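pls read this stuff:
=====
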Amino acid sequence: MTKSKGHALLPFKSFAVILMIIAAATFSGCVQSESSLSSSSPATQTPSPKSSQTVRPLMAAATTTPAATPAISATPQATNDTATQQASLEAATSSALAPNAKQNIALMENLEWTFGGKQQRGWRIYVPLISLLIETEAGADTNEFAAILARWQKSAGLAPSGVLDNSTLSAMVSTWQSRRSRNRAAAESAQIITAPPSDFYDPSRPDELRQVDRATHEAYKRMVAAAIAERSLNLAATPNGELAPKERFLKIVSAYRSRAYQEKLRREQPDAGRAALAVNNSPHFTGRALDIYVGGEPVETKDPNRLIQVGTPHYRWLIRNAARFGFHPYFYEPWHWEYKPQQ
């Protein structure tokens, strides 16, 4: 009986074993499938440092498609970060240039240099021209001025120190002088006209001292008309657009000079130096140089007088606008302007 019973249970035991094998195989397949899905899904994978590096080029490539463009556009936060970095850089630069600005403050008053055979001191008088040349409105005693000056120095082939020293001032003077007319030939009589007394600072000047090159006078009249139209200058004018008789600013002080008259002025001012009264090649010989009233004593070269002149709005207007009419300044004399139209 016992043996028969064991034979009867054998088929059931075999069937149970088969079921267990099938179940185990099914479970193994499910686990393997889940593992494959996990390894193929970036969303559920925890990347290692190496895998994160290999993903970046794919992301960069995706940004080249139109759909991805908004994702790489500058965000307000990115813009703010850039502005902050720029401000930090400027602050660091400004701080680094602080000693240079202090040197400029001292040199502006005390730099010793020579021009026209005369000893010069400082460069404060030339600050308006310097600021125009290096393209800044920053005060000459500021870090910003030093930074912009360094940029100009580099463009001029100088060491970008941000300090306006002798070599820098010399390069600036050379630049200003290069813009003046090189033609010193005496004017021909056919080119010379006698300008009306109303154009002159001193209307009582005799006819021979009111002579001027024709084209120069025409350009001067156009320039004066533009200055009259500039209301901030507050120039008194006649109904027909001329400078009023009582107006002194921008009137002609001197124009054409003969060689004999130049020599007379030299005798009367023996200490003028070559910078003020040229001996053999005065641009006034051409009739294309005008001394124009811009304030103070009309043609006094002492530093206090020139400081007054360069501070007037009329001088500031001229250095910014006269070139449009063909006139260029002589840096040493705020009143002296030469007609050199662009060819």
Q: What stands out?
A: The first strand starts at residue 112 and ends at 115. Residues 189-339 form a domain with the Muramoyl-pentapeptide Carboxypeptidase; domain 2 fold (CATH 3.30.1380.10). The mean pLDDT is 79. The first helix runs from residue 2 to 40.
